[in-house]
Amino acid sequence: MIKDTIAAISTGMTNSGIGKVRMSGPQALEIADKVYRSPKGKTHLLHADSHTIHYGYIYDGEQLIDEVLVLIMRAPRSYTTEDMVEIDCHGGVVVMKKILETAIKYGARPAEPGEFTKRAFLNGRIDLTQAEAVIDVINAKNEYALSSSVKQLRGNVLEKIRQIRKNIIGNVAFIEAAMDDPEHINADDFGEELKVSVEENIKAIQKLLDSADNGRMIREGIKTVIVGKPNAGKSSLLNSLVGDERAIVTDIAGTTRDTLEESINIHGIPLNIVDTAGIRETQDVVEKIGVTKAKTFAQDADLIIYVVDGSTPLDENDREIMDMIRDKKAVILLNKIDLDLQTTKEMLENMTQHPVLEISAANQQGLEDFEALIRDMFFGGKLSFNDEIYITNIRHKEALSQALESLNLVLDSICAGMPEDFFSIDLMNAYDVLGGMIGESAGEDLIDTIFSDFCMGK
Ligand code: GDP
User: Fold this and answer.
1) In this structure, which residue's CA is closest to atom 6 in ligand 1?
2) pLDDT tens across the length of the chain (458 residues)
3) How many whole angstroms from 127 Cα to the centroid of ligand 1?
4) Is 77 flagged in the annotation as binding?
């Protein structure tokens, strides 16, 4: 049982139009009642109905602090399922702080980051995947990330995992029953039956895992590297793509020394382009070609854009780059088509399976086709944003991988003709890790870690 009442400023700590101070816990209404006065002094919040809004003033003793609206939400119909009070005040940092201090003075305790959502979880209103989705909704960098997080918030990942767990526990129960009561339940053919069920669960988990890479790309952006020989037009391409969007471009300090990432949006798809400008500037002769360094970047890129200078003939370096990108997701751009071409689209197509497009980076020609291609590559046909479930969280991905491993062990045991009780151990392992994923057996440390990622007041 949670006995204390927490309070926090839930809006940003900058001056803005309105601000919100929230309280949750058994004393929320009592504290609100002590600090609030209605215009005629007649309304008492202690007895106010749930889901009502009250106009008035916040006082600390006789000192008037602000003119406010107070929202009352009684347990269990609130975000945390506890009694909650939201004070809508003016959005000045000083006034919000003063209201928070007054709430604390009259009995509330300052909330930890994420503590409101933690209470919603501990009180059973939401599961862990939904709680994590709250963070993702707040941090969503683009529409796709937002839509995926909101779906997770509504519980679609939870439902899927619950279903798989239900199947697994069904299998375990059947094995136990067959062992307890061999006369009535025939366990002889059970191996085959179990195999079918385990394979179904494996397929479902695999599908979720497959979505994880797309999920990560949606959340963090598609890691993109532009490669090509010096003067092919890499910087020109980047500048053209960034173009009018300059205003929304952000520089993210890269994880690799001396690299920067430019974030651009193509049809709402976030591309984080590693700016390889540094490659060109190095003094090292080999590095000047850029192939060595580009290789390192390319290894863990989601997408490679290979820019070829059409006004020069192909050489060894181009062949080396083609080799390097063979097994990657890549697009080849034949640049400078406004000049006399020494290299043609056909030549390139003969060297690679990847799509080849003609562009002129300097003249902004062919870029629309390129953008359409990117969109189709990632979202066309293969993926649908309407009903797919995306795994966007690394913790979920790890849990799913572990569950998959355990279920594969069950399959191995069945094929090897092991006794039934062998199956149960691995089935229960899978059941437990999936439970951890949705918080149905999550350890306290894990829960604390998850919630400490939250912002204040959420
Ligand atoms: P990088 O070394 O690959 O980054 O190449 P840059 O973007 O710096 O371009 C090298 C040179 O090629 C510059 O002088 C550009 O103006 C020129 N250039 C780039 N794209 C085109 C193009 O489409 N047409 C023509 N004619 N010149 C281009």
Assistant:
1) 233
2) 778 999 999 998 888 899 999 999 999 999 999 999 999 988 899 999 999 999 999 999 999 999 999 999 999 999 999 999 999 999 999 999 999 999 999 999 999 888 999 999 999 999 988 988 888 888 777 676 777 788 788 888 888 999 999 999 888 887 877 777 766 666 566 778 889 999 999 999 998 888 776 666 767 778 888 888 878 888 888 888 876 443 233 333 333 334 456 778 787 777 888 755 434 444 455 445 455 666 677 777 888 899 999 999 998 888 888 988 888 889 999 999 999 999 999 999 999 999 999 999 988 899 999 998 888 877 653 433 334 577 878 889 999 999 999 999 999 998 888 887 788 899 999 999 999 999 887 667 667 767 777 677 77
3) 53
4) no
Q: 236 CA to middle of ligand 1, Å?
A: 6
**Spatial distance between the Cα atoms of 402 and 429, rounded to a whole number of angstroms:** 9
Q: How far apart are CA 252 and CA 269, in angstroms?
A: 17
Question: 410 C-alpha to center of ligand 1: Å?
Answer: 58
216 annotated among ligand-binding-site residues: no
Q: The pTM is what?
A: 0.60
Residue nearest to atom 22 of ligand 1 (CA): 336
Q: Is 165 annotated as a binding residue?
A: no
